[in-house]
Amino acid sequence: MVQSVRLNEKEQELLRKKAVELNKALILKGQQPIRDSELVHILIEEGINLVEINNSGKLTIPK
Length: 63
What we know:
There is one protein chain. By secondary structure, the protein is mainly α. The chain has one domain (9-60). It is 51% helix and 6% strand. It has two helices and two strands, in the order H-H-E-E. The protein has helices at residues 9-28, 36-47, and strands spanning 52-53, 59-60. A two-stranded antiparallel sheet has the order 1-2. It starts with 8 loop residues before the first helix and ends with a strand.
């Protein structure tokens, strides 16, 4: 199984922006901010079961 994943620049920026957004909310609630790597683990653990294949064969997570 893969132990590391390379993110492209767009993915890195999306991850950074989401982490900043979430960390602002966490700080306002008096909680500790999370690291980008923690966010990646949450996304995998929580999102893995949401992935579906659409009619054209593309993998998606429905909104």
